[in-house]
Every structure is written in structure tokens, then in C-alpha cells.
Write a structure and sequence with these properties.
single chain, 667 residues, alpha/beta, N-(1-d-carboxylethyl)-l-norvaline Dehydrogenase, domain 2, 2-enoyl-CoA Hydratase, Chain A, domain 1, 4 domains, 8-stranded mixed beta sheet, disordered N terminus
């Protein structure tokens, strides 16, 4: 009897891991439900999508069918839409939907009683090993799990809308969620090609909505008290602080009632202007009017000139404070929070990183001033924020804040750049802002310069530069930063392009996707360029009333014919990889299947080649290009004579005579 009980307990709590997940049930066929079902089917899972009415299920299936067709048109599917649809079944029978499921994801309306009914029935009908997940964005995972006999196997998997496009998923612990359950959920999200972040405690709003709350609510309080205007707030946050849309525009897009109900249910005070809009049923875009007028109106018509004296620091200080609460309470790490805000809310940089740049002492001082003036509890500084400042950890300049910063010599870790130097001497650099198509911003530019100027040059044989994700090498400069640029600061060529061009080792741009504007200038600063056939190239600056400012006009005019260089710059249009190869803008345009192999062949020659000879060849060719032929020939002759004295030249001659591969040591 004891042995039987022990075995039953062990088997009952044997949580399935991600490798054992084959069948997924999605309960709900609305916008979130059919989106989650679609991404799971694309990833290769057998999916059953269920809703309460046949018509809802059919509409959801048709939406999946339409979306898959669009993805196929854009070349974003690895197989036919029909093959994906073969893995998607539909039903209105809940018991049948979950009977064979390894993972159940509930995506029903945000009502706790409804979710209790669903989870109670699922708990009875699903296999004992199955993980039960909720896509809730506002309800407690702990409360939801109370409807089951397996709270350790319940977690939150909060996808963002629309799931097919949004990369972020919050993986949320309830009070009794086991680590194996959370680990399996995390790995499942990764298998979808999404980015998971761990939310280790079941706090209201989880990570993204907790931090995002003050972004929308504080400007609403300020407008309610006539301390600012709607357009002033939106214009300042977008055109001066770089956010993708203003707080009132965001409220209109999401639906003012959505934020209203979340705040109401949590007992959070509601700004008067929000209450007025809900009472008048002016809820945003969906009703034709909210903070802005959409039907027969201009919509969110603010511009850079509308930015005035809006107190953006007040808003950002509150967001940093929320992030500090999450870190101090061990809900999430700064890295997870910043990933969440970039991928889930489209922030230009993580709020923890921004807080460290502002200075945590400045943030704390702002909160204390507001607390003294207003007395509202929302200005209460987080204990963790106070502790950091009192310890002298005030941010980037201090060497530590919410993050620790590498203040030593040599390359470090960079929030917008990843890199690896292997034993063969290949320095592989990845531009890491996929949520912004790897657009260049100040942080990324400074990171490239710091890496290439601090790395031990003798350990590097060659450099590759590529973009994170599958959509872009680099889609240009982050235009959200243009508003704050001073003309005098931009009168000299940007250091980043010169640093890449002048790095003494061979450099190769691995281009897969958009290579535009400043991204194309980074690629042109490299010595070699290999692209997939689906990549696109161009200088769109002219359409913004600008011109390429990182060497684009000069490198193209030297690389292409005058007519082609001017066509590229003057028209601002994209050209295909095949045309770029034909024009001489890139070295190769290859199918995606052959991309890594082709790059590997180039890299093998660069890494295995004679480093001294390659260095001198690069220097002579770059300098000689801008001089007359005689001067260029003199440079070549001098370099040739020098190379004859090197051990590499001796090794090269010996290897040739002995019919073997040379082993160059760079001496």
C-alpha cells in the first residue's frame, strides 16, 4: 500500500517537460486564442482550438487561415499553410479538446469565475501530467489555480497581442507553481521562437503592465489637474523621449475602458479624465472618439511642435520606481524587466537601464518631492530604490545601480550588442535590438566602438557583423532619437562607421533581411558583404528630408557608378539583393539555405589567412583608393617589401613547396 501511494504521488507530480509536449489545447478562439493556436501549430505542435460556440471557432479558424496566407506571401513560413492547418483541429467540446493534451492554454475573457469554471473542468478531463496555463493579463494565477487539484502544475503564459507578431511571453509563477512547471513553460515559449521572461511572484500586472501603468495613468492625472495637455504629453513622450506612441494615443488604441476596469478591479484610484471618458462611452478608436476624435476627426494629430514643458521625468521616475519594486521583491531581474518593456511595450530601451542613465538619486529626489507636495501613496519610493541610493549605487556613472557596470579595461557586456571571440580568432558581433529591427541608437553605436577599440587586436583574425532575429541586419538609425539631435553634433562623420571601416582585421557583414540607412552604412564600412536573396537595401533618408550621414554618399560613389550611387541615394527606394550584387554593392546574394555555408567559406579564408598580409592589404587598398595610381602603387610596394621579411611569408612559401595548408601565426 505504501509503495502504491508513493508511486502514485511521484507519477501524479511528474510534470511534463517541454520535450514531451506534443499536443496543445487552446481554450478560446478569439484574438488571443486563435493567435496562440496559430503560433503553436507553426512551431510543429498538434493543436486543438476550442470555444463555446461553433461560429466563434469557425471565425477563429478562418483568421488563422488568413494569417498563414499572409505569412506565406511574405516568405515567413517554412512550410505551406495547408501543412500547418493539418495540425490544427477545432471543437466546442472542452473535455475532448484537453483529453490528450500535454499543455492546456486558457485564453477566455478576464473573469475569475469563468476561469474557475474552465480550470475546474480541465482539471478533471486533462491527463494528470498536463500543464495548465492561463493567458490572463490581469488576474492572479494563484487564484485561478485554486480551482484545480494540481496548483503546482498551473502557471501563467501571458502572450501579447497579436501573438503571431509579438515576441514576448511572460511566464508567471503562482504561489504553488513548481520550478519544473515553470521551466517547461519557459522552454515551450522558446520552442515557439518567442522570448520568455520569468515573473517569479504573482503580483498584479506582472512585469510589463506593472511598469507600464504610470506611463498612462500619471499623464492622465496631470491633464486632469490642468498641469499638462493631452497633445503636450503625447508629443513629449514620443518626440523627446523616444516612446513608440504617447500615453493617450496608447489608451485610445487599447480601449480606455480596458485600463479603467483593470484599475477598478485592483482598487487603484482612477484619474478623473479617464472616468469622464468611460462615463461618456468615448472609449478610443473602437468608439470613434476617446482622448482624440477618430470618426470625422484627425485622430492622434500631435507633432514635435506640441511638445512643451511636460514633466516627463515625473512619469519615468514612477516607472523606474515600479521596476525597482519588482527587482527588490524578487519578482523579476532587471534584464527580464527591460526585455519585457522593449518587446512587450516597444520601449526604446529598458526602464532599468534608463533609470541608471537618469541617475537613481535623481529618480528618488523626484519621487520625494512629489510625495512631499502631493502626499499620494503612489509616490512612495521603493525600498530597493532607497537602499541602492543610500549605498551610493546611483546608476551608470557610479558603476552600479539596478545593473552593475563593467568599469575595467577591455570589452564588456552591452545591452544592445552581443559578441563572442572564438579560439580561431573570429570575433562574431550581433546587433541585438530585434524588436526595433536592430536599428542603430546611441547605445549600440557606443557599444560597437567600445568593443572594436578595446578588444585585444592580436587575438582577432576576422570580424563578422549580423543582426539578431530573422527580419533585419539593421533597418537604419532609430528615428525616435532624431528630435534631440543638435546639428553641430552631426557635422562630423559618426565615429561608429569610421571605427568599423578602420578596424585592421577583415570585416564581413552577414545580411539577412532589411539593410537600410545607417544599417547599410555599417555594412558598407565592412570589407565584405554577403546577403540572403530576401534581403533589401536602401537609403530612405531622403524621404525624411535628410541624406546618409555615416559615409553612405561617399562609399557608394566610390563603389558604384555615379548613376547607380545617385539613384540609390536620390530615390530612397529599396533594391533587392540580386540587384545589389549586380551593381557591386555586395559580394554575394545567396539562397537562405546556402547562406551560412557561403559565409563559412569566406570566414575560413579570412581566419586561416596570413593576418599580417591581410592587415596590410586592407590598409593599402583603403588608403590607395583615395590617391592617384602612382601613390597607391608606392603604398603597395612598401607593404610587399615589408611582408617579405615576415615568418608568415616563409611559412607560406614552405607550405606551397610541400603541397600542404599553411599555418600562419601572424609573425
Amino acid at each position: 500500500m505504501f509503495m502504491f501511494d508513493y508511486g502514485w504521488i511521484a507519477w501524479r507530480h511528474m510534470v511534463v517537460d517541454s520535450d514531451s509536449i506534443d499536443s496543445v489545447a487552446v481554450l478560446g478562439a478569439g484574438n488571443m486564442g486563435h493567435g496562440i493556436a496559430e503560433v503553436a501549430a507553426i512551431a510543429g505542435y498538434d493543436v486543438v482550438m476550442r470555444d463555446v460556440e461553433t461560429e466563434i471557432v469557425e471565425d477563429g479558424y478562418e483568421n488563422v487561415e488568413w494569417s498563414l496566407g499572409k505569412l506565406a506571401e511574405k516568405g515567413r513560413l517554412d512550410e505551406s499553410p495547408e501543412a500547418v492547418l493539418d495540425r490544427l483541429e477545432t471543437t466546442t467540446d472542452l473535455d475532448a479538446a484537453v483529453a490528450d493534451a500535454d499543455l492546456v492554454i486558457e485564453a477566455a475573457p478576464e473573469r475569475l469565475a469563468l476561469k474557475h469554471d474552465i480550470f475546474g473542468q480541465v482539471d478533471d478531463a486533462a491527463p494528470d501530467h498536463a500543464i495548465l496555463a492561463s493567458n490572463t493579463s490581469s488576474l492572479s494565477i494563484t487564484d485561478i489555480a485554486e480551482a484545480t487539484e494540481r496548483p503546482d502544475q498551473v502557471l501563467g503564459l501571458h502572450f501579447f497581442n497579436p501573438p503571431v507578431k509579438m515576441d514576448l511571453v511572460e511566464v508567471i509563477y503562482g504561489e504553488e507553481t513548481s520550478d519544473p512547471t515553470a521551466d517547461a513553460g519557459y522552454a515551450f515559449v522558446e520552442s515557439l521562437g518567442k522570448t520568455p521572461i520569468r515573473v517569479r511572484k504573482d503580483v498584479h500586472g506582472f512585469v510589463v503592465n506593472s511598469v507600464l501603468g504610470p506611463f498612462t495613468s500619471e499623464p492622465a492625472w496631470m491633464v486632469s489637474r490642468e498641469e499638462a495637455t493631452i497633445r503636450e504629453a503625447d508629443a513629449t513622450m514620443v518626440h523627446e523621449r523616444g516612446y513608440p506612441m504617447g500615453p493617450f494615443e496608447l489608451g485610445d488604441m487599447n480601449g480606455i475602458d480596458v485600463g479603467y476596469h483593470v484599475r477598478s478591479e485592483a482598487g487603484i484610484p482612477i484619474p478623473p479624465i479617464m472616468q469622464e471618458k468611460v462615463d461618456a462611452e468615448k472609449l478610443g478608436r473602437k468608439t470613434g472618439e476617446g482622448y482624440y476624435v477618430y470618426d470625422d476627426g484627425p485622430g492622434a494629430d500631435y507633432g514635435p511642435d506640441d511638445a512643451g514643458d511636460f514633466d516627463w521625468l515625473r512619469v519615468e521616475a514612477l516607472m523606474v520606481n515600479e521596476a525597482a519594486k519588482l527587482v527588490g521583491d524578487d519578482v523579476a531581474t532587471p534584464e527580464a524587466i527591460d526585455t519585457g518593456m522593449r518587446l512587450g511595450a516597444g520601449f526604446p530601451e529598458g526602464i532599468c537601464r534608463r533609470g541608471d542613465k537618469l541617475g537613481l538619486d535623481r529618480v528618488l529626489s523626484t519621487l520625494r518631492d512629489l510625495q512631499e507636495t502631493d502626499g499620494d501613496p503612489r509616490y512612495e519610493p521603493a525600498e530597493h530604490l532607497v537602499a541602492l541610493v543610500e549605498a551610493g549605487y546611483t546608476g551608470e556613472e557610479a558603476g552600479q545601480g539596478l545593473y552593475e557596470y563593467d568599469t575595467g579595461s577591455g570589452p564588456g557586456e552591452y545591452p544592445t550588442l552581443s559578441w563572442q571571440l572564438d579560439d580561431e580568432g573570429l570575433l562574431a558581433i550581433e546587433l541585438d535590438r530585434p524588436e526595433r529591427l536592430n536599428a542603430l541608437n546611441e547605445d549600440m553605436s557606443e557599444a560597437i566602438v567600445d568593443l572594436l577599440t578595446s578588444v585585444e587586436e592580436d587575438e582577432v583574425r576576422a570580424v563578422t557583423i549580423e543582426g539578431a532575429g530573422d527580419r533585419a541586419f539593421c533597418a537604419g538609425a532609430d528615428v525616435s532619437g532624431f528630435a534631440s539631435i543638435e546639428p553641430a553634433q552631426e557635422s562630423e562623420p559618426s565615429t561608429v562607421f569610421r571605427t568599423v571601416a578602420e578596424f585592421p582585421r577583415p570585416t564581413l557583414a552577414k545580411i539577412d533581411g532589411y539593410c537600410l540607412g545607417g544599417g547599410l552604412e555599417i555594412a558598407l564600412a565592412c570589407d565584405l558583404r554577403i546577403a540572403t536573396t530576401g534581403s533589401e537595401f536602401g537609403f530612405p533618408e531622403i524621404t525624411l528630408g535628410l541624406l546618409p550621414g555615416g559615409g553612405g554618399t561617399q562609399r557608394t560613389i566610390r563603389m558604384l557608378s555615379d548613376a547607380r550611387a545617385k539613384e540609390l541615394v536620390f530615390r530612397g527606394e529599396h533594391i533587392s539583393a540580386e540587384r545589389a550584387e549586380d551593381w557591386g554593392l555586395i559580394n554575394r546574394a545567396v539562397d537562405e539555405d546556402a547562406f551560412e555555408e557561403t559565409v563559412g567559406e569566406f570566414v575560413e579564408d579570412l581566419v586561416g589567412g596570413p593576418p599580417i598580409a591581410l592587415r596590410h592589404a586592407k590598409r593599402v587598398m583603403n588608403r590607395g583608393r583615395d590617391q592617384d595610381l602612382d601613390a597607391g602603387l608606392d603604398l603597395e610596394s612598401q607593404a610587399f617589401a615589408l611582408l617579405l621579411t615576415t615568418d608568415d611569408a616563409t611559412e607560406g612559401a614552405a607550405a606551397f613547396a610541400e603541397d600542404r595548408e599553411p599555418e600562419f601565426a601572424g609573425e
